């Protein structure tokens, strides 16, 4: 487990946007970012409400003077600090509609960004974000955190190496139950903004978790989409956004991908489950039991790959994404931290003035984020047109 | 476990069509039919090849004189036997294209029929079959055998009683891998006819197993369909029929059902898996582990219902569909036999000149079979029209 | 699936002892015995109460004249029938204390016997049974039915072939919950005799299910025991026999086997679970999910062997113990029937005057049954002596 | 998730002993200790080799001046620092034989201690440790980290509240495979000291993991032991300590506990599995799948309790031991951190001069550690005496 940042020889300095009281994902970012002792949280704009922002700082051990009332104040003041003190990156963990202005502000100041997903409010913003990242030369990662699980990376590398043969079918489902009732009518902060089109964007379940399921299928397989037919539903009466949805995606190679997202399935917690069928082998993985993956081949015993950094079957990347030996389960925080960890490698290279990969990154990048926004846009549009087939090729998407 | 047939006080006499060497499902019928000691296999037309038909008889302990060379010969000669000797019912376990002529011949002679699925070659034949059954007054069951599992019946009764609330989503998948290679090019009898449009009908995977998945969703929930959009694929190059398919079905009540059928998923055996989401509870069941079902409700521990005939939570029908106490696993044969068992009840009533239920039967009936054929027809048509929405309301379908 | 009996060319004729109303295992024998169409139930002494015996006959389709009032009457009268009509074998499915007199009576008439387990009331009787079998030359099988599961046989053959290396540890547990309350005080027939020392013998849980767990370990591994230390408890107050017990067994090769049997574990159904550790590989199998077995080897993905008669990894015996393809689950009845099926092979050989294997049989034989009785005797004695080490070597036991 | 330390209003300052290159558990302590942002690692004596100790400091971000060459140097120099700078506690993550001198040195200086398990080299040392802790008034926790899992605490509270009734049986197994080969003959640091009696103590597998399994049974149930009979084996030829062992423990209330520990079971990773049978309910939990626990009751569906801090069924302590909502799996690090977190509460109270609980603590304390050493001592002794029953009552053990 690395703890320094190579020849940089210091911790990276982090600022957090969002994470005030009632927040869920802000705390996750803060915990994941420092798990490997490579970064320290030193500044924050923890709420859009300046008073709340400052009041939340002690809980993160952020000093009073660096607990800012707004993100633009933060960027402005941090940039005036000596180079050896100012922040290296901003983590954006706010409701969706504010991701873009915050990230853009940081990028324009040359600050690296780790941005929550969905990356922006809509696809137009996403395209602007791509331009802003390209212009800035900064490191930009999107927290499609499920890509951080060691066995997800193992699956990706097995597939990209051709071990599964040609991929012909992907079934990626993300099933939850927490919005089974109209929670947004109560005071639940999470439910309130996630079901509000003015904060969440054009999609509900499909924006919040459908994108994860889609991203996982894309990240694991590298398969490229061609067109999509989608069906979104608001199963809970009076809800403004979809809480159940299903997309059929024709892939460029003739394969078929299906994506289901639900927030209304009783008792289902965070059940992201993917199956991939290749001509040579098939595999499946389930987020709630992330330390194992099943690989099947006709005529052979089914194989359970466990997360085992010492096993000969693990790829070097997957092994290096582990922190504990087999049987000592790793989970959500560690996977989240793996998005950070590999973005840190790029940040260190950048800080040292070196080249770093921008498109075919291990972590999800701005192109992945933009593709996710395109997916949402086309799904919502297809659903409105009775499931019409709409194009899904985003030219800048990674292949 | 009942063994007599009530006041009838004798075993029912069975004839088998199909089941000659290389057959799979014929032997299953023969075994399931006698499991409860309520029937005896006394006659057969075991192959379309008369010589093979006769040669196969000893393996079923069918006497030489009742081993017929063809089904029409069988029906004709059996009807000439004294009433106390002649067959009560015919089980049709032949390739799909011959189901209809065989069943029709039996029905016209007033003989009860247990027919394999898909029920006919096409929907037009299915409608003729409905008419033939209605005219005959005979008992007619279709071997949608998965409805015979005790926990499937438990699920059905829990749902119909309203325990799960309004059903809003059904995901029913049937995943296999055995046709991953082009097995039909070798000498494999099963693969040969199941991938041949002239014997199997218009659909491959969707006819063979997609119908089971659809039927299971309909049987469990009673939810009525409105329209279907379907995507069928032949993933194995050169295959004449679909080996992978996916249907989205809008239900009359606004709910959404999705059906996936695959024959090309490496290592997958016979993985029929269904999830049902209601407003009050959700449940899931998996054919390969049929003795348990999971029921979930937000805020409650998840509940594993095991097949336990002595448990207070089992419905009377589900309990009476068991033969063994909990923990003594029951499986495929027993479920298959449960289709027979409950059809026998009707046959006994008929033999005694009494009324018996014809539509809302415990076992799958001719209307279910016809609905399955309509499903195949509309799926194939929708797929040909690029996934166009086509109507799925079959007026005679059970509600 | 064979259905004839080779050159014998007729069904074997079966008589059933036990199986009257309220019986559980009698019906299981009757169903399993005919599953493969190789035998017919033609006679019975279904209860120790002659009236009940005769009244129970119709439920088994046994004719009035062959529904006998007692087992000795049955043996006597059957032996007077012409050779072509009289029974070939008797299945003994009565409470434990009557196994011996019934089996002995049949053996002395030269009739083959399938006997329930535990084989006798005590070990002294078991030794007499061995003598009686040896003298008779008849086929004798004991219904340690769990040996009939295809994957148990697969495990046995993999182990005996050396694939797992030297076996060093066996953990075999059989956990139930049905006697958690003092059911014997109510009218439950099963509980009544199984907790009654005068009918069940010296042990309760250890006699009823501990023997199964022990037998499974012995059958799977072929490892030979040296000595045993045992601890039996009656957890339910006032119960006459043990309902929980644990034995530690030192094996001849230095390995260690532990056996736990419980009837008082809430909600546990019929949970027979075994783990075997070898120097090269380890495996585990669970009766309640009998169609899969896990095989592990350091540094390799864990392997799930499913019951798949067509898979290259299945041994010929294990494959021939299947009736259905993979994914079509087989279960309790089929395993039970596999004890019968392989005993039938021996009966056919005997009927044809040929030699047949008597010690190293596929089915559990009289030596296995006797070893089980020795196990019970030594466990009870050890427990009474505070867990003292007592010898476990039974000289006639199979190696 | 709390991040401050209440009115103390500062992070606690931590020193680490052990954790140099090749160490496994040192890094785990360092990561777990700071997970909740309540402590900072500021000093260390990272190796018994002074040069290696200093060389390892950067990897922990420990400044050069506080990277000490030995634990006594560290304690001496830290105590000379101003009160507002010096360490609050020492984490001892060294091989077993050095736990005691290090901890004693710290305790005598009044420094709190988090000590790895087994707590000492032998039971005599453990008794001295108890005296040292009692004399010091310091907080002392032992890293029986599995007690930190939220569902383990949930189980404990359900059991202590009487929900399971009287506990009659506990089966606690800890199965690993990593020492299947004689790894100590290679250069593997972990294997080397853990199989060396001069560093590990009198027991191998039983000291390393058997104590965890025993502690888990004791912690979950509160049941008190009476006597033990134990069987230890060195399955790998030439190994100095046991690598497989089994203990039978008679509990004071008449219940029976069995403990199995293995390091030689192929492919088994870190499989700590416990089953508890009560008169009213039974439960089971498995460390490798720690976010669920199964609770069973005769006649009821089995219940899967998932780690869900928002569910009404969770006890307040178990809920407060969670950091993430249900379905976002938590694992090894979080459980480990929960030992720290609750010890921190006591440290804060102590720092503020307040009373804190010393015996019935949420975290494992010195009495638990001492009981573990007594368990090891009696197991080793019993095994040497052929499994003789030896007393297991440790008078200071918690009840």
TrEMBL record, chains A, B, C, D:
Its EC number is 1.-.-.-. It is an enzyme of class 1 (oxidoreductase). It comes from the Bacteria. Keywords: Oxidoreductase. The keyword Nucleus does not apply. Transmembrane segments: none annotated. This is Putative oxidoreductase YdgJ. InterPro entries: Gfo/Idh/MocA-like_OxRdtase_N, Gfo/Idh/MocA_oxidoreduct, GFO_IDH_MocA-like_dom, NAD(P)-bd_dom_sf. Coiled coil: none annotated. Residues 152-283 form the GFO/IDH/MocA-like oxidoreductase domain. The gene is ydgJ_1. Residues 13-144 form the Gfo/Idh/MocA-like oxidoreductase N-terminal domain. Pfam families: GFO_IDH_MocA (PF01408), GFO_IDH_MocA_C3 (PF22725).
């Amino acid at each position: 487990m690395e703890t320094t940042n190579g020849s940089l020889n210091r911790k990276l300095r982090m600022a957090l946007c969002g994470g005030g009281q009632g927040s869920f994902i802000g705390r996750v970012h803060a915990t994941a970012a420092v798990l490997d002792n490579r970064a320290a949280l030193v500044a924050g704009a923890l709420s859009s409400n300046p008073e709340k922002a400052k009041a939340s700082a002690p809980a993160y051990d952020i000093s009073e003077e660096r607990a800012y009332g707004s993100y633009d104040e933060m960027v402005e003041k941090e940039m005036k600090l000596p180079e050896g003190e100012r922040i290296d990156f901003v983590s954006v963990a706010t409701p969706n509609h504010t991701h873009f202005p915050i990230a853009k502000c940081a990028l324009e100041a040359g600050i690296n960004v780790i941005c929550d997903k969905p990356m922006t409010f809509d696809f137009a913003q996403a395209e602007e974000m791509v331009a802003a990242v390209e212009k800035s030369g900064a490191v930009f990662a999107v927290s499609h955190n499920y890509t951080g699980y060691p066995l997800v990376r193992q699956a990706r590398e097995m597939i990209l190496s051709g071990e599964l043969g040609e991929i012909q079918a992907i079934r990626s489902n993300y099933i939850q139950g927490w919005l089974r009732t109209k929670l947004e009518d109560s005071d639940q902060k999470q439910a309130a903004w996630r079901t509000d089109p003015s904060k969440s964007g054009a999609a509900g379940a499909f924006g919040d978790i459908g994108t994860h399921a889609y991203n996982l299928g894309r990240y694991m397989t590298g398969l490229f989409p061609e067109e999509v037919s989608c069906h979104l539903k608001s199963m809970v009466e009076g809800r403004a956004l979809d809480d159940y949805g299903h997309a059929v995606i024709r892939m460029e190679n003739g394969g078929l991908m299906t994506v289901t997202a639900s927030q209304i399935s009783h008792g289902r917690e965070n059940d992201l489950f993917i199956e991939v069928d290749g001509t040579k082998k098939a595999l499946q993985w389930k987020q709630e039991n992330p330390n194992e993956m099943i690989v099947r081949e006709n005529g052979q015993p089914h194989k359970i790959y466990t997360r085992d950094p010492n096993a000969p079957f693990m790829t070097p990347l997957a092994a290096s994404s582990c922190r504990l030996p087999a049987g000592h389960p790793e989970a959500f925080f560690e996977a989240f931290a793996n998005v950070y960890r590999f973005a840190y490698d790029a940040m260190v290279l950048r800080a040292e003035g070196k080249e770093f990969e921008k498109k075919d990154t291990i972590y999800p990048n701005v192109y992945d984020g933009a593709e996710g926004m395109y997916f949402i846009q086309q799904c919502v549009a297809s659903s409105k047109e009775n499931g019409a087939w709409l194009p899904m090729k985003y030219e800048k998407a990674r292949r």
